[in-house]
User: Fold this.
Amino acid sequence: MQRQSMEHARESIRIESNAIASILDYLDEDAFARAVDVMSKAERIATSACGNSGIAAKKLAHSLCCIEKPAKFIPPGEAVHGGLGFIKEGDVIVLASRGGKTAELLPIMRICRQKKATIICITENLDSPLAKGADIVLSMKVERESDKFNVMSTSSFVVLVAIFDALHVAIMDETGYSIDEFALIHPGGAVGERLNS
Assistant:
């Protein structure tokens, strides 16, 4: 391995660590609290995004299911081909797009608005169509991606995951979710063995 490659690898870790730590400097606690409140009370939660943001959104949906909040990741392509039948009035949809202009998400937002769902958007661009059309906007900020070309979804991915994880753990508190409830639905793996021994 070249020395330069190791230096870039170490720099990547530093950049991503700083990007996550900086969330505390700009987190809008009022908007975050509103998001936690509506998600805690919703019967169903959908998430949707493209690319690496979609992977993060899929993780959020799974994490919510792990605390018994019925949630589903809806791929944007499936959403506009009937998948949004999952959404009912009073439900919540979480849309993520760093630039806030992802074309595939705009019709999803329009349909969810007509179905009277609460729309939560996570974006860096507060003047974007997604931010302006959402009920609740959570800001994310990324100074630079961690690769040498500043183009790969690296820092932006871990920042989005960190924000989603923060929502997840806050919802656990708000709903009073217990370890016994988790043990029931997670009998598998080392965690399940520890909880059910």
Notes: The first strand starts at residue 45 and ends at 48.
